[in-house]
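Hello forum,

I keep getting stuck at the same step: I have a sequence, I want structure tokens, and every attempt I make locally crashes halfway through. Rather than fight my setup again tonight, could one of you with a working pipeline run this one for me? It's a single chain of 341 residues.
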Amino acid sequence: MKAYPLVWSNIRRYDDHIIMMGTFHIACGYLKMLGKKINGTGFAEVLLEAGLISSGSMSGVLSAKNDSRSLNSHKVLMEALARLIVGQFLEQHGEEVPFEKLPESSRDLIENLAKSSNKVTETAALSDQHICLYTAEYMQFRDDIRSGLQGKTAKLSMTYTNHMWLTLLLLQAVKTNNFTAYEQCLSIMPDLFFSFGGQNYARYLTYFSMFIANIIHSHPGATELLRRGAISVARSFVPGNRCAIDNTIEETFMKHAKSKGDSGSTGAGLSGLQTSYSAYQDGLNQQRNEPNLFKPFTFWQACLMKRTMASNIVMFGQQKVDIGRIRCQKQWSNQMLQRPT
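Reply #2:
Ran it on my machine without issues. Output:
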């Protein structure tokens, strides 16, 4: 995202560059805009009363700072609203359960599709006229809700479910590496960003979606390269379980570099070694237990010679003395003397 202002200002200069936007951050930003849309509508209070979130985590869910909890809460709310829509449709048709008035043969086709979902059962169900007519009536009912014929509250619920299905479709496109669905989602998403103050995504996501739509003509052959792994990476051998590239970056080396290295953390990165003495001490203990790591670790020791922790710098006359540096030098000297030859 930070590179796009340069591309925006110098389009001709960066005409040969293809800068991808992080799908994970796009999804989080979209959930944040969706949280702004439902704020004050009572949907957040529904999640609170249902026990899905607490009052302290409500802001994190609505702002999508807690991305996993926010996505789970939105999915549960979307399913609840979808069930209310289906219940209203059944009430208008005088049914207690879906497909109750269909012939037995049609119900058998739907049951076979539910038990074994494949191309054969799907084709058989879609070729049945009664099922097609029933589905068309339900889709018309959804269109009536979307147009406001069933009231403004129902219209708000329908627009919310549409936004959530768009988010889930984007995540599915990433997991299955479906570039066509990925391109389609990006072309629809800028509207919500534009409506609720996400000016950066509204501007640059629109530019990026138009760039992807015309990439066949502007960059011949680049589409195949993007399909191979520009939107997701496979971190396991499980099919259909790929991860967004920016999410993978956040969970691997960037997480290690930002970690503090205190108790309960998973590793000590650069910021942890420079700011936390306990993290540095753990590194020394690891070096003492594994002498083979001595040579690689001397580079980090040399980097830490320049540490500027305020608590370790004191004034001695007119000269600054780094107490932490002296302490580190003593520890290194003792370890070098104790190191087995």
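The chain has 20 helices and four strands. If your local run keeps crashing, start a new thread with the error log.
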